[in-house]
Amino acid sequence: MDMPAFGASQTLTATQTFANAPQFDALLVPGGMGCFDPNDKGRPNPKNLNPVVDFVKAQYPGLKYLITVCTGSAVTSLTGLLDGKRATTFKGALPVLAKWRPQVQWVPRARWVVDGNIWTSSGVSSGMDVAFAFVKEVYGEETAAAIATWMEYVRHEDGDVDPFGIDV
């Protein structure tokens, strides 16, 4: 399998597959354009998503935390795990996802939403904010603040304050 190359001569080598992965405590589900059918952006892409959906479903019973970034909530919604829960996603995909999974209580005005042990974030940069909220929850405010300072990052600490919120 060809592995992607990164800067500074780094490469990424997979050491596990969906078939032999251990049970995780936390799982982060990213999104991206691969979530959508290239011929119909209003439909999921089963070729890309089915293996991921199956993996998330299999992992969930043992997870302490399930976190989605951007349209990672699209993937997660197809597992049924978001049904009846509050969740958010990339605002550009929200109208489509509201049709895919009306069983989800989609929140159009939130940078991130926590419902039980499921954390969903909206656009990709909101993924930074949900990550900091998660670090604060698990490791404490002092650790979250220290990391943000080291990164020179100004945190959005209230997930309900969303300047990019939309009406659906």
From TrEMBL:
Transmembrane segments: none annotated. Residues 14-136 form the DJ-1/PfpI domain. It comes from the Eukaryota. This is Class I glutamine amidotransferase-like protein. Pfam families: DJ-1_PfpI. It comes from Polyplosphaeria fusca. Keywords: Glutamine amidotransferase. Coiled coil: none annotated. Gene3D superfamilies: 3.40.50.880. InterPro entries: Class_I_gatase-like, DJ-1/PfpI, INH-QAR.
